[in-house]
């Protein structure tokens, strides 16, 4: 395997793959020389040698014919291009959520993975946690009756992951970071430390805020229980609170989206609203289920509250099972069977977040054709499905 993007999340993923004896990490790539050196040191220390190769340009790593698979943990604005190139080069891919910075990027990524018949795993690891699996199976097997409403609680505000919120002065990029390359297809803004490593997610030039950072987790689980892994909403509307467009951190800090799904199911996606609890809650005609991180699970029917698996006679629908998200990817690389979070699943899990952001930015209800994947009757909103790429980069 090769590792592309070795900072915060990439470093965590690197350690997970190193600790799996069925694979070997042979190369690392990053645009920050400090991240790159640290990742190489981690690999060499683990194998007790100096064999790990270092790359500045992801395309050079992907050109190696001896690499079977890659992990890609770049910022959101750098998801699409490495993935498309990796698929073209015949590499299987472990990629992070959300799938892309825009829906148009995601559509091209899905086509590339499908065209080249690549194995894909998304870092939506909650599907490999037993209590999330159990909660979704309860819903899919009709134990809460007909599904009526789904509540998806995400974080609000901004989290200063890098302790740089006060470092907002325009300065020269540090010598260890190739800021031109890092800016890539997005606009090259003046260098400000507060919107680079870890905190890039709080500026729409490079990330999607809390909504897009988390929709690939809790909305992903919501779709699993709703049987919407390959479909989506019919319409969505919402309101949000935004900083000034030219703020260092300009992503939405408080938001509430209402989406209509087939069969008269309503989904609420909210961040910063106390009435919508963090995690995923499905509400049916005969009960409800709520699930979140930290093994948190609550069920209206106490008969099922202490279990972690349904009795076999009630499991008419048996969802894909995985107890090791990274291991599941490696198993699929060998078997060529789909992973638990395929590229198509990642695509559809993120779409409500992207459409919700478009609804808030336009102030209009968005009507969505989930089969053709187009916005209906709104040319202005449709333009926000994509965005311009800075030369020389292009989405193809």
Can you characterise this structure?
The protein is α/β, with parallel strands linked by helices and 396 residues long. The protein is built from eleven helices and 15 strands. The chain has helices spanning 8-18, 33-47, 58-62, 80-88, 103-115, 130-140, 179-183, 209-226, 325-335, 343-362, 379-382; strands at 2-4, 27-29, 53-55, 69-72, 92-95, 120-122, 147-154, 235-241, 254-261, 265-271, 279-284, 287-292, 296-299, 366-369, 374-376. The strands form two sheets. The protein has a nine-stranded mixed beta sheet. A six-stranded parallel beta sheet has the order 3-2-1-4-5-6, with helices on both faces. The radius of gyration is 21 Å and the shape is globular. The two termini are 25 Å apart. The model has no long low-confidence stretch (mean pLDDT 97).
């Amino acid at each position: 395997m090769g590792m592309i993007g070795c900072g915060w999340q990439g470093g965590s993923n690197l350690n997970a793959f190193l600790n799996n004896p069925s694979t070997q990490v042979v190369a690392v790539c990053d645009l920050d020389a400090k991240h790159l050196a640290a990742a190489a040191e981690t690999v060499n220390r683990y194998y007790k040698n100096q064999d790990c190769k270092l790359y500045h340009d992801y395309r050079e790593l992907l050109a190696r014919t001896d690499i079977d698979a890659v992990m890609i943990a770049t910022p959101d604005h750098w998801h699409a291009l490495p993935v498309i190139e990796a698929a073209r080069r015949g590499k299987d891919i472990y990629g992070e959520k959300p799938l892309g910075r825009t829906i148009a990027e995601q559509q091209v990524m899905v086509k590339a993975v499908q065209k080249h018949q690549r194995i894909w795993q998304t870092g939506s690891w909650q599907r490999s946690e037993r209590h999330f699996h159990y909660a979704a199976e309860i819903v899919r097997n009709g134990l809460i009756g007909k599904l009526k409403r789904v509540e998806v609680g995400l974080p609000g505000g901004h989290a200063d992951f890098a302790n740089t919120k006060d470092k907002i002065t325009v300065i020269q990029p540090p010598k260890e970071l190739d800021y031109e390359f890092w800016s890539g297809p997005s606009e090259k803004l003046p260098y400000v430390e507060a919107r680079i490593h870890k905190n890039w997610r709080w500026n729409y030039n490079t990330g999607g805020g809390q909504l897009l950072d988390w929709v690939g987790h809790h909305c992903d689980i919501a779709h699993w229980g709703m049987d919407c892994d390959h479909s989506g909403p019919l319409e969505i509307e919402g309101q949000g609170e935004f900083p000034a467009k030219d703020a260092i951190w300009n992503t939405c800090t408080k938001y509430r989206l209402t989406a209509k799904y087939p069969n008269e199911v309503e989904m609420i996606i909210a961040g910063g609203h106390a009435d919508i609890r963090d995690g995923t809650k499905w509400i049916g005609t005969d009960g409800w289920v709520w699930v979140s991180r930290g093994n948190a699970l609550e069920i209206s029917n106490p008969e099922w509250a202490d279990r972690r698996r349904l009795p076999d006679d009630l499991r008419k629908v048996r969802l894909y099972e995985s107890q090791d998200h990274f291991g599941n990817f490696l198993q699929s690389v060998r078997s060529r069977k789909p992973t638990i979070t395929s590229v198509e699943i990642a695509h559809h899990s993120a779409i409500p977040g992207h459409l919700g952001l478009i609804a808030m930015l336009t102030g209009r209800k968005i009507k969505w054709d989930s089969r053709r994947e187009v916005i209906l009757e709104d040319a202005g909103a449709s333009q926000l499905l994509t965005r311009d790429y800075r030369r020389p980069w292009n989405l193809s």
